[in-house]
Amino acid sequence: MITSQSRQLYERARLSIPGGVHSSSRFRRPHPLYFSRAEGAYIWDVDGNRYLDCNMGNGALILGHKHPAVVAAINAALERGLQAGYETELSVRVAEKFLKVVRTAERVRFTNTGTEAALHALQIARALTGKDDVAKVEGCYDGWADPLFVSVWHDPAAGGPARAPRSIPGTRGLARSQVERTLVIPFNDLEGARRLLEANSDRLAALILEPVLIDVGFVPADRDYLLGLRALTQELGIVFIMDEVLTGFRLAVGGAQEHYGVVPDLSIFGKAIANGHIMAVVAGTARALSVCEPGAEQVAFVGTFNGHQLSLAAADAVLDLLADGTVVATLEERTRRLARTCRELAAKYGVDVQFQGGGGHFQWYFNPRPVRNYREAWASDPHAYAVFREAMVEAGVVVAGNYLGHNAISLAHGEEQLEFLERAMAAAFAAVARSGSPCSR
Ligand SMILES: Cc1ncc(COP(=O)(O)O)c(C=O)c1O
Predict the structure, then answer these.
(1) Distance 270 CA to ligand 1 centre (A)
(2) What is the chain's alpha carbon radius of gyration, rounded to the nearest angstrom?
(3) Taking the complete model, does pTM exceed 0.85, yes or no?
(4) Test site for ligand 1: of 246, 268, 311, most ligand atoms within 8 A of the Cβ
(5) What is the pLDDT of residues 120-136, one digit of tens each?
(6) CATH 3.90.1150.10 intervals, the chain
(7) DSSP letter at 291?
(8) Could you tell me the distance, in angstroms and rounded to a whole number, from the CA of residue 142 to the centre of ligand 1?
(9) 332 in ligand 1 pocket by Cβ < 6 Å?
(10) What end-to-end distance do the CA atoms of the chain give, in Å?
(11) How far is it, in rounded angstroms, from Cα 112 to Cα 187?
(12) Is residue 53 a contact partner of residue 62, using CB atoms and an 8 Å limit?
């Protein structure tokens, strides 16, 4: 593929933007790709190359790019003229629709990004418990705030024992004092988690976790682990926060909490709720969100752009389309089909690969065994993935930039797009087999 316009734009961009990108995760060597438009399941780069998009706005575009109902809703909202800083009937209606879909929640507040939602949830948890600190799960990404951007995408060799992981900063620039106070617990190891939570319960306001580690691919929690943590946090007076920013509306229309049958005190949603427009949600029990009721003791949950009218218009349309569960069922069926094809192709080309996915999110782990936690994901072969990824891009498919990333399809990925993806997968497995990687037999 010729990407000379992207290269030129990168040379220009790096004079005004560090690395030529506004989110460091978009940086690629030898240069990032720059895009000019998108429609349905496709995006076009500035050189005019068309790609099948399996990034889908980091998983946000559940309905596909430029979905007509979402575009119409936003255009109508633009005509009404209201943007930020006001409450409207729309902001009430979308809250009601959300609570009809996520039945385990009783109250909501809207905000903008997953990171902000996590911080609001943490403040609510502190107000509820009178305690300050937070526990999180090794390998979960819960946004970039100081106490939460901890122990994800790190080298486990520096991460301490599996049953007592160390708190590793996710980036430079975090307040060390906050990172050190964050307790990191292991994933899918209830006994290991129990020991740590019990020993630290007097200082923990909250435990936050992704019910499926999607930010490092796709690693589902065991049901017993989630149910066990729910019961334990209740016993220990720790607020249980489910981070549904990626699982939201994908595993079940009511989120992973419906899929697993777990009722958290608080949960956060984002991404898919507005199909790529900027919106996030803090949802929870009436008791938990009662601390945001007006009064001297309230948690001041504030933000200029909270409940932005354009985002709400998008969410209004998205929730209508998601409500009957058809979108979720369709995405699940398509993911299972890709898993079947992947198994057949892996056997044909003699490649050890685990396709792990659900609800339209997935990752290929070049690993002889299924991946059950962060350290097993890390132990997959990054070189085989790099060969695979390059072949996928060459075949015209945008997939996750590295082996601890994630991929997503949308409602717009129909038969034609799935067949294209399957042909690209075949070519990419052939490339891995030729590369002599330890994952090829
Ligand atoms: C599970 C999860 N939680 C939180 C976040 C943070 O969301 P945002 O990027 O909107 O701040 C992300 C973003 O990737 C996420 O995947």
Answers:
(1) 7
(2) 21
(3) yes
(4) 246
(5) 999 999 999 999 999 99
(6) 34-65+325-434
(7) G
(8) 6
(9) no
(10) 29
(11) 28
(12) no
**Edge-to-edge strand order for the sheet containing 183-185?**
107-111, 280-284, 266-269, 239-243, 204-209, 133-137, 183-185
> 382-394 vs 415-434: helix axis angle to the nearest 10?
130
How do strand 42-45 and strand 35-39 relate by DSSP bridges? antiparallel
Q: Is 244 in the pocket of ligand 1 (CB under 6 A)?
A: no
Residue 390 in contact with residue 434, Cβ under 8 Å? no
Beta-carbon-side half-sphere exposure of residue 251 (alpha carbons within 13 Å)? 24
CATH no. of 34-65+325-434: 3.90.1150.10
What CATH number belongs to 68-322?
A: 3.40.640.10
Q: Where are the CATH 3.40.640.10 domain residues in the chain?
A: 68-322
Amino acid at position 124, single letter: I
- Ligand 1 atom closest to residue 270's alpha carbon, by position in its atom list: 10
pLDDT tens-digit readout, 143-199? 999 999 999 999 999 999 999 999 999 999 999 999 999 999 999 999 999 999 999
Please report the atom of ligand 1 found closest to the CA of residue 215. Answer: 16
